[in-house]
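pipeline: protein-struct stage 2 | run 1193 | Group 1 truncated hemoglobin
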Amino acid sequence: MEQTLFQKYGGFSKVSRIVLDLYNRLLDDDDIGPFFDDVDMARIVDHQTKFISSLLGGPASYTDEQISRMHHHLEIHTRHFDRLSEILAETLTDHGMTPQDVETVVQGFEQRRKLIVV
């Protein structure tokens, strides 16, 4: 039986650690950090853990409508999304993901760009 990337990288516990590190980095970024000023971080970390898990072949998933609804009130522009992609790739790499697996996750985000960027 073929192993999913979700299984390869240790399931929810590992993905959760990666996402916590990702948000620490995002909060430190001058352009991205302010998006989280009034956000319930525990809730967003939970959502992002499930989303990234789904991109790795894990059990959780989000519809395009849910993703669009979660971001429709934000003024996320191309430069914000590009910076998020950079920080995401750095974080995944620092947690030991192969370049090919990093690209899989980054492309998963990229495919949803039109749902998020205004």
